[in-house]
Predict the structure.
Amino acid sequence: MATSMAIDEEDDVVVEAPKLGNIDGVTMHPLVLLSAADHYHRVARGTRKRVVGVLLGSVSQGQVDCTNSFAVPFEEDSKNPVSCVFVCVCVWNNKH
C-alpha cells in the first residue's frame, strides 16, 4: 500500500491516499460516535462552525472497522473559510 506526495511551485502539499478497493461495509464503534458528538457539542453547538477530527481503524477484505478518533483543533481562513483551514502540526506529532 503506497502513497505519493508531491510539492508544487507554491509549496502546497498534495497527498494521494492509498487505493483501498471496494468497501462493502463500515463498523463504527460507539465510542467514536460519542467522541464526535461530544466534540461538536463542546465546540460548535448552536453555531455554523465546523469541527474536524481523525478516524482511526483498519480495512480488511472490504470491511472498514473504525475503532478510535480524536478531535483536531484548527483555524479557518476568514477570507476563504470553505476551502482553507490551518492545522498545527504539533497536534499530529503529539498523537503517536
